[in-house]
Design goal:
The protein is an alpha+beta fold. Strands 4-1-3-2-5 form a five-stranded antiparallel sheet. Strand 2 and strand 3 form a beta hairpin. Helix 1 packs across helix 2. The protein is globular.
Length: 107
């Protein structure tokens, strides 16, 4: 969950990618919200419903309600410069597609 100073007024979901993709995703985004990392996965907080009409490519994981598996060692590694905890979902989706070699699929 985001720090108390960053209210999640639009609800909260999370998008996870394997840790091997973490730095590459973060470095390619024009703006990033809260990012949590553990040894296996990095998670970006996005507004609820960010999976609407999007098929997130494998190996990304979409977690409604930010219900992610409990993992030892997960910590907040990035906080946004702005007033919300969110990463814009469309740029995140496009970066994940690019890194996984997947063509974006809009429903």
């Amino acid at each position: 969950m985001p720090p108390p100073s960053l209210p999640a007024l639009q609800g909260i979901d999370a998008v996870g990618v394997p840790a091997a993709y973490g730095f590459r995703v973060l470095s390619r985004l024009p703006r990033s919200g809260c990012v949590f990392a553990d040894p296996d996965c990095w998670w970006w907080l996005v507004p609820s419903g960010s999976d609407h009409e999007l098929t997130w490519p494998h190996p990304a994981h979409y977690a409604p309600g930010a219900r992610v598996p409990e993992t030892v060692g997960r910590r907040l590694i990035h906080t946004p410069d702005g007033p919300t905890p969110y990463t814009p979902p469309i740029p995140l989706y496009l970066v994940v597609c690019q890194l996984t070699g997947t063509a974006p699929a809009w429903n």
